[in-house]
Design a protein that fits this description.
7 helices, alpha+beta, elongated, 244 residues, binds uracil, four-stranded antiparallel sheet, nine-stranded mixed sheet
């Protein structure tokens, strides 16, 4: 793996900053100063230090993506572009989306190759909260919002669990769910005679969409974000790169 890629994946640098650090003599590999951030390293065996601090290799990749409209939450699809195609080739081959967003829903997506974390975060019993900004066709009345907060019947007669709704303007607001049925928000608005015209996911458990990411852009999660997800999934904390 390229050294600059390793430092980016560890969440401690960007590719351009890695080149600068290498030129400035701030990176060592197995104790030897390196000038070329494009050199190949073996992440499992080589010891990389940046500014005198050892950088740990992460077993898994954790990516936050600001999903654009028109992409499907899948690794492959013959009819539509997939979210994985927005990532680096190396990561795209490894990670999978943690949960689904509809093709026309935008915003926060977590992609990872950490199957255990993903499985636990998505387990219905864990009730991980997800907040979405909705835009709807007709003004949402307090009565309709109240019915949705308490639970409405959707496909198959399923009664939705209590949820949070914060009305911002008559046709926009935030809705927080702790479950994820197929097209759930669309169906819930349909159940009260309204219709979703746009949907953006803002949070996923402890993760909040990074406002610096444009649609279609992504970044690796920080140690703090990964640890917060681990805590939400009742898993042991990863070692922070700054703990070393
Ligand atoms: N509910 C929906 O209707 N669509 C999504 O993408 C997510 C939740």
């Amino acid at each position: 793996m390229r050294l600059d890629k390793f430092l980016t994946a560890a969440g401690v640098s960007t590719r351009s900053a890695a080149s600068k650090s290498a030129r400035a003599g701030d990176i060592t590999v197995n104790g030897v100063r390196v000038k070329d951030a494009g050199m190949q390293i073996d992440p499992s065996n080589d010891t990389v230090m940046l500014h005198g601090q050892t950088i740990t290799w992460r077993e898994h990749i954790y990516v936050m993506l600001n999903k654009p409209e028109g992409y499907v939450s899948a690794t492959e699809d013959s009819r539509a572009p997939v979210v994985n195609a927005l990532l680096d080739e190396h990561d795209a081959a490894r990670v999978f989306p943690c949960g689904r967003l509809d093709k026309y829903t935008v915003g926060l997506m977590l992609l990872t190759d950490d199957g255990e974390l993903s499985h636990r975060l998505l387990a219905p019993a864990r009730h991980v909260a997800k907040t979405y900004r909705y835009h709807c066709r007709d003004p949402l009345t307090e009565d309709a919002a109240g019915r949705m907060r308490e639970g409405v019947h959707i496909e198959g007669g399923y009664l939705t669990a209590p949820c949070g709704i914060e009305i911002i303007t008559p046709t926009t607001g935030n809705i927080t769910l702790t479950e994820g049925k197929y097209h759930q928000i669309k169906q819930m608005f349909g159940a009260v005679g309204n219709e979703i015209t746009a949907l953006e996911r803002l949070t996923f458990g402890p993760l909040t969409l990074d406002g610096k990411l444009e649609r279609g852009e992504w970044r690796y999660l920080s140690d703090e974000e990964i640890n917060a997800l681990y805590a939400a999934a009742d898993l042991k904390k990863i070692k922070n790169t700054t703990d070393i």
